Each structure stands twice: as C-alpha cells, then as structure tokens.
Amino acid sequence: MGERSSILTRFAKDPKDGKEAIAVWAHAFENLRGESLDMSHSFDNAAAAFELGIVLATASAITASKMLIRFALVMGAAGLILAGLGLTYPALGAF
Question: What is the rounded distance in angstroms from the CA atom of residue 88 to the CA atom of residue 43?
Fold first, then answer.
C-alpha cells in the first residue's frame, strides 16, 4: 500500500508530469481549440459571402443590372472583412 501511495503523491505533486502540469497543458489546448473553432466559423462566413458575391456577379452579367453588381461588390468586401477578422480577431467574425 505504501508504494501505491507514493505513486499517487508523485502524480499529484510532480512539476513535470503531475496533475497540475497536465491541467495547464490541457487548458492551453482548450484555448487553442476555441480560437481555432472561431477562426473556422469566421472563414466559413467569409466563404459564404464570397460565394454570394460570385452568384450575384454572375446574375448581374446575365441581366446587365448595375444594382446586382454593386451588391456583389459589397458581398465580396464583406467576405474580405470576415476573412481578415478570421486571421486577426476570430471571435468577431464568428457569428
């Protein structure tokens, strides 16, 4: 029983492989995962805006509508902004 107790004590207190060291490492990965998820959502929103802009530009070419091309440019600009937010401030672009 004494050997098991020393192993548990070492696991709890070891600065390299103990519970506290593993918890710090796990929290760092949780933060990285959360930021990566926000980046993914922001890039998905940017891709959707780009795709909508492409569809609107195609429709404006077929119908020769200036209003549609302006809206396509606005959607393209929104896509650029969302992509930039995904790189710099991912939480702002993820909605």
Answer: 12
Q: With contact defined as beta carbons under 8 Å apart, do 69 and 54 qualify?
A: no
The set of long-range contacts for 31-40, using a CB threshold of 8 Å and a minimum separation of 24, is 35/90, 37/94, 38/90, 38/91, 38/93, 38/94, 39/86, 39/87, 39/90, 39/94, 40/94
Six token digits for residue 77: 């600009």
Rounded CA gap, 32 and 10, in Å?
28
Say if residue 48 is exposed, middle or buried (CB neighbours under 10 Å; 0-12, 13-18, 19+).
middle
Predicted confidence band at 11 (pLDDT cuts at 50, 70, 90)? low
H helix count then E strand count, the chain: 4, 0
